[in-house]
Amino acid sequence: MLICAALISWMSSAKAIDYVPESGFTNEAHVGMSISSFRGEFCDPKVGMTFGWKGEYMLPGAMGTFINFGLDMTQKGANDVVRLLNPINKINAFYLSLPIHVGYRYNILEDLGVYADFGPFFSAGFASNKGWFGKHTEDARRFDIGLGFRVGTEYNNHLSLTFGFDWGMADYYKPKNDTRSTFCSTICLGYRF
Q1: Which domain holds residue 44?
Q2: pLDDT per residue over 50-79, tens digit each?
Q3: What are phi and psi of 120, to 5 degrees?
Q4: Which DSSP letter does residue 59 get?
Q5: Is 122 contained in some domain?
């Protein structure tokens, strides 16, 4: 909230921008690729998928400052080469996430803009090969919370390309001596309507 307040204050004192984004609420659907791993231990990254919806409210009179939120389905996990000394332990989990971000959009040209946003996310796992189905003995946590950052570009106020980075703050496994947490980067194509 402090970042948002500072951004709005700075925007109101800035010089006029040639192409100011229109205020109001818009929706965006997006689909893309995720690359995830764990922090705190060496793991090979795992490639997966991500897709979802995002609602964005461009604040009136704030010259490009916005708030967005959404629902994302993201595949996370890792090819864990350290935890087991025998064959690779593949960790595959699907999370439904709710990101809530504050950001800023700057239109370089009338039909071309760049943007960045930052904020927390809250995730709930709904499928995993490690503990959620009762099939495996390891006890993976179902819930995650963390911080996310997005940067991207948008053409004609409709088509977008976004790079995202999410740092999980909760330990993936329940044992106290296992402090691994998730890290996930995403590349998404989106359409605003």
Answers
A1: 2-13+24-192
A2: 999 999 999 888 888 999 999 999 988 787
A3: -80, 160
A4: P
A5: yes
Tokens standing for 82?
């350290």
Long-range CB contacts (< 8 A, 24+ apart) of 49-55? Answer: 49/74, 49/75, 50/74, 50/75, 50/186, 50/188, 52/97, 53/27, 53/28, 53/29, 54/27, 54/28, 54/30, 54/99, 54/190, 55/25, 55/26, 55/27, 55/28
pTM for the whole thing?
0.79
> Which token pair is 93?
């989990």
pLDDT, tens digit, for every residue of 91-104?
A: 788 899 999 999 99
Q: What average pLDDT score do residues 115-142 get?
A: 74
Any domain includes 182: yes
- Dump the DSSP string for 19-33: SPPPPEEEEEEEEEE
The count of domains in the chain is 1
Q: For position 163, which CATH number holds? A: 2.40.160.20
**CA–CA separation, 144 vs 105, rounded Å?**
28
Question: Is residue 19 one of the residues assigned to a domain?
Answer: no
Q: Answer yes or no: is 157 within a domain.
A: yes
